[in-house]
Design brief:
This protein is mainly beta and 243 residues long. 5% of the residues lie in helices and 49% in strands. Strands 3, 5, 6, 8, 13, 14, 15, 16, 17 and 19 form a 10-stranded mixed sheet that branches. It has a 7-stranded antiparallel sheet with strand order 4-7-18-9-10-11-12, with no helix packed on it. A two-stranded antiparallel ribbon has the order 1-2. The longest helix is centred in the N-terminal third of the chain and has 8 residues, at 3-10.
Length: 243
Amino acid sequence: MTMKFFKSAFINISLTGLALILITSGCKIVKLNSADKEGYVRIFDGKTLRNWDGDSNYWKVENGNLVGTVTPATILKRNTFIIWRGGLTADFELKVDYRISEGGNSGINYRSEEIPDLPFALKGYQADIDGANRYTGQNYEERGRAFLALRGQKVVLESGKKPILESTIANSDSLKRYIKKDDWNEVHLIVKGNRMQHFINGVLMSEVTDNDTINRKFKGLLGVQVHVGPPMKIEYRNFRLKQ
């Protein structure tokens, strides 16, 4: 390889974000974990649980999806998570598709912390998901302040006070019609500073402005949940994170 060709092969390659460049024999260039044109990085490869940490009794990779199941033989006594170990979530956007069984209950935790002495337990903000679409889209704080914003609400949180309803996005039932049952839906989380927005299929479902200086968090772990209850199945695919 001449020096001129070597330079031309690299001139338009951006090493931004988490992009890694692998040069194989024959000078073929392959990008690993590279950001797309919108700045999102895929954090689940669809083949392995690399950078994901959870109880193998409940989590596996199946047909390219991250799958959580509870069976009659593995009924839970407490909620359990599979945790992304690739970094912390602070200010970020996340897009991910999910499909859940009718009786299922799950959620996407972010800016969360692990509970000492309880394996795969998280405490923190959660984008709630359930098969009946009773809770899907709301902001719930796992092992914390509980219901922060119900679907259809824009809420402000203050220390020592109940959530303050700032305004209504829409009626909860009218928003529910944008959420598909027994099919794939896209969650889009936009989390910046003390403001958290939860979208389903491009529609804003809830918004929280957290002014509670005692309890709010600005960074923490990302994970997804299988919930205490009857047998269930939750599938996730296309995890895309933009920090």
